[in-house]
Amino acid sequence: MFQVQKWGNSLGIRIPKSLALKVGLEEGSEIDLDVEDGHLVIKPKSAALDELLAQVTPENLHKEISTGESQGRELW
């Protein structure tokens, strides 16, 4: 069982390391909180396209590759 605690003007819960590992959370992880059917739902923050594109640099940009001719009903 977990207990809600007051942290400043907010409320907080501690997430045990074993649960955090199961869902890929670590210190500093950004999350989204929502309420669905009366339940508090914690999800990893979904990255927006502009945030993902901002991480592209000349050093990590993949070059165009040839995948060959179209097959079947593919259109190129």
UniProtKB/TrEMBL annotation:
The family database entries (Pfam families) matched by this protein are listed as:
MazE_antitoxin
Domain SpoVT-AbrB, residue spans = 5-50
Record InterPro entries: Antitox_PemI-like, SpoVT-AbrB_dom, SpoVT-AbrB_sf
One MF annotation (Gene Ontology) recorded for this entry: toxin sequestering activity
The superkingdom of the source organism is: Bacteria
Q: Which NCBIfam families match?
A: lp_hng_hel_AbrB (TIGR01439)
Stated name of the protein:
Antitoxin MazE
Source organism of the structure: Fontibacillus solani
- Please spell out the taxonomic lineage of the organism that makes this protein: Bacteria, Bacillati, Bacillota, Bacilli, Bacillales
